[in-house]
Amino acid sequence: MSFGFLGIQFGFALQGGFMSRIFQTLGADKDTIPILWIAAPLTGLIVQPIVGYLSDRTWHPRFGRRRPFFLIGAIMSTIALFFAPYSSALWMAAGALWILDASINISMEPFRALVADKLPDSQRSYGFVVQTLIIGVGTWVASNLPWMMTQLGVSNTAAPGVIPDSVKYAFAIGALILFTSISYTIFTTDEYPPEDLEKFKREKEASKGFFIGVSEIFKNIIGMPSVMLKLGVVQFFSWFAFFTMWSFATPAITEHVFKATDTSSLEYNNAADAVGNYLGTYGLVSMIFALTLAFITSKVKINRKLLHMFSLFAGGIGFISIYLVEEPWMLHISFSLVGLAWASILSMPYAMLSSSVDPKKMGVFMGIFNMFIVIPQIVAAIGGINLMYKFLFGEEVIFTMVLAGTSLILASLANLLITDRNVTHDG
């Protein structure tokens, strides 16, 4: 039931690892990159609560509750992912990112809800960790695709303002895997029907209408559980950190470690491929960590909060260490620590959240919870990164990674706000 997340993560990893490279190739200045990313979190802020609300009220005898949204998102994501590297202007690339992120969001939120739908509380940590394991595989492979294409003889350079073929091939392969893996989940996974189908139909009929739906979503936002709000603080600092990485890892590392700034040069494009390789490392480590957690959570109960605190703190140290590395190979160590945080971010908050909300509203609450993912990204995109790293640390772009590390450490400490044992421990 989580296999489709392999494809979703191919989309996210290619987007996160290489859209900034595309923006730079098309002439974007480093300081303007975050604002070019703003469409992605803005889309998530709007799309995910709506999709969650609609999927809670959907039931199809063949496709169930969540799977219709998997299919719609898969088709749109595949098209957007394939065409993104063919952008010939910045506005086209930004538009492609907007469409891609909106499409992936349509599929992603129901995947989170599906795990909570099908598993009892005692198995949810295990379920979300297995999902994270699949995400780790996707991150690792997709982040290395341009490098793999280069090794196979595909050109890694192009004329100024043109995206190299290695990136185009990687996005095409990612599009194929995205559609195939989501389709596999759609056609091999069953969903449980509502316990009382007639009551479900009556409630759905009573909640029909655009304004009623919007009103319901806002009621749920205002009445969200206190645990959800506390988790939101943790999520804010966590996702601010990772948005900073996705926006600035390529310019920061190519400039600081490889001393390459000419985006049409072989040195820059090889360095950008290497950055993708390092980003793949955090995916690989998150996969290994998730595999370890999957074994542990299948055997014993865990303290979700303490595990999440440790993982986020380790990731923070990893980001800060990027500034200190003296040899490129040392970045694998830095991103290994980041991988611990990534594995936990993709599993523990959702396991804790699913233990604190009404199962009948799982979709809409998972969608609302996404607000705490996209709001920090919006804050970062409209100037939060540029203002903070320059004010706190200095003008060099590598200080964005120090800012990301500081943010993850704050996220780690914010876990102390969560005190409900029913949430912090497996049921």
Automatic annotation (TrEMBL):
Official protein name in the record: Sugar transporter
Major facilitator superfamily (MFS) profile domain location is 227-427
Q: How does it sit in the membrane?
A: Multi-pass membrane protein
Classification via Pfam families: MFS_1 (PF07690)
Q: Which domain of life is it from?
A: Bacteria
Q: What residues form the membrane-spanning segments?
A: 35-55, 67-84, 128-149, 169-187, 227-249, 275-294, 306-325, 331-352, 364-385, 397-418
Per its record, what are the GO molecular function terms? transmembrane transporter activity
SUPFAM superfamilies for this protein: MFS general substrate transporter
